[in-house]
Amino acid sequence: MIELRDLRDEDEGVLFQWRSEPEVDRWMSDADLPSREAHAAWFKALRTDPDMRGWMIVRGDAPMGLLTLTGLNSHHRRASWNWFLGTAEARGRGVGRAAQVLGLDRAFGELGLHKVFAEVMADNDAALKAQSSAGFRREGYLRGHVLKDGQPRDVVLLGILASEWTELREDARRALSDANLIAA
Ligand SMILES: CC(C)(COP(=O)(O)OP(=O)(O)OC[C@H]1O[C@@H](n2cnc3c(N)ncnc32)[C@H](O)[C@@H]1OP(=O)(O)O)[C@@H](O)C(=O)NCCC(=O)NCCS
Q1: CA of 75 to the centre of ligand 1 (A)
Q2: What confidence tens digit (pLDDT) does each residue in 76-133 have?
Q3: Where does the chain show beta strands of DSSP type E?
Q4: Most buried residue, 3, 41, 76, 151, by most Cβ within 10 Å?
Q5: Domains within the chain, CATH numbers bracketed
């Protein structure tokens, strides 16, 4: 079963390793790979700053990736979604699909958000497909929006509203529990 669990002290090391993986870093808008110190400060903020939430995506006890929501203090009750699975073996097997359903339930249930949005690099086929399948809609196309390794990259803006998730969640949860990916 795939679950989201709160961050623990021991996650800091594996998250540093994953954030340094080329197949993760290439899709992140961060200017550079984080130093160990910058990573530690980011990890601490994820656990303590009320503007942010982060969960490990786990299968059983095994950490597979990270999901974060940032901008939670916004008056607008919206937050920015970011996520990755740390290793190639974890990807393309439905883990992301399950993590999205669990994450959207947290966002719109526990956190009471009105909207979740994401900025996805325009050539990130996996993320665009996965997020569209979960119900994110395309809201915009931002040309040369981020500089990655000195190169301007286009970004697709995706968003999903609480009312849309209410319509989708039951079928999405059922499909995943039928596939033994999440608990019923
Ligand atoms: C994006 C990511 C989290 C998706 O998780 P995943 O476990 O690989 O995705 P899943 O196997 O659950 O697939 C979800 C959907 O995306 C599709 N998909 C997955 N990988 C794909 C790929 N490489 N190309 C096209 N579609 C893909 C699947 O077919 C599936 O579609 P469906 O729900 O209609 O059947 C994961 O690939 C990843 O960590 N990528 C690297 C980091 C990254 O890009 N993060 C996002 C930054 S915005």
Answers
A1: 31
A2: 999 999 999 999 999 999 999 999 999 999 999 999 999 999 999 999 999 999 999 9
A3: 2-6, 52-59, 62-70, 78-85, 115-121, 137-148, 151-161
A4: 3
A5: 2-178 (3.40.630.30)
